[in-house]
Write a structure and sequence with these properties.
Layout lengths: L1 H14 L1 H16 L1 H27 L11 H10 L2 H7 L5 H6 L2 H16 L3 H20 L17 H24 L6
Helix pairs in contact: 1-3, 1-8, 2-3, 3-8, 4-7, 5-7, 5-9, 7-8
Amino acid sequence: MTLLIIGLAIFFAVHTVSIVSEPWRDRMVATLGEGPWKGLYALASLIGFVLLVWGYGLARQEAAVLYLSPRWLRHLALLLMVPVFPLLLATFFPGRIRAFARHPMLVATLLWAGAHLLVNGRLADLLLFGSFLVWAALDLLSMRWRAPRAVPGAPPSRYNDAIALAAGLTLYVLFLVKLHVLLIGVAIV
């Protein structure tokens, strides 16, 4: 459980800098330069991510069960997951979906974490998915007073929504039938 907690702490510390102190972040970018800042940010994020994935894998094996979900919640979780990949891709393919959702990656994270909390009741699950849910909600709220940053991605196009939908739904189906069990070790269907 310790590795999971350390990984979450590192990952969210890095991803919360702009929420907590955007002026400090901007000063660091000005001092270090944008390239070195992004490099350090990416390295710290990667370290945190690797530790949280590794820690979660270990913690899942012995974590206490806090609650058992009724079987019908699996169907609700699967339904909540349908828009997750299209929203995630809409972040990088600007179109009407991105304009409507405003912050599609954060909305996707909220849906992903919430869906997983419905059907995973171990302590490790609560730490992982609950942390992402709280962080995404706080980040979304902070967008009310923070200036939006440009997100790298495809240039605006009338086809971007179709790309995000088609590729996102394809990814969802691939995760359902193969990728979730290959990457996570848990069969969904």
